[in-house]
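Allow me, if you will, to draw on your knowledge of protein folds for a short while. A protein sequence and the structure tokens that stand for its backbone fold form the material at issue. I would ask you to consider whether the tokens describe a fold that such a sequence might reasonably adopt. Thank you for your consideration; the sequence and its tokens are set out here:
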Amino acid sequence: MARIEYPEEVNALVGELKRLPGIGPRSAERVAIWLLQHPRAEPGALASSVLAARDRVRACERCGFFAVEGFCAVCDHPNREPVLCVVEQATDVLPMERSGVFKGRYHCLGGRLSPLDNVTPEDLRIDGLLRRLREESIEEVILALGADVEGE
């Protein structure tokens, strides 16, 4: 007897969901089935949101955080302190902002040096960092990088 599988469209959806970080085969299958069968699921709205974000959201021209046009909300804020916090990824900014403690500016490197993975200074936003240090009145730089070998 032939083995029964999902239709090819469902398998394709599961395959795409598995490509997302943290989503394994079982989770991808559950999400796909939920999107197809749940009355509150709105796969069209989900697809539209993903496409709109992909089309409109860019890295801030100055710091590398998420922006829709030009500069992000942090760089556009006129009263930020002249302290620059250097982080690895744009996703590192919001936890610090949500803490409410840091009131300075950020610079996202876009990764970390990793010679074993062929990530060199040219692959990161270090030139932009140096330019900012020359052009902006920065009084202090805080390195908020990982405590691993690459961060050190």
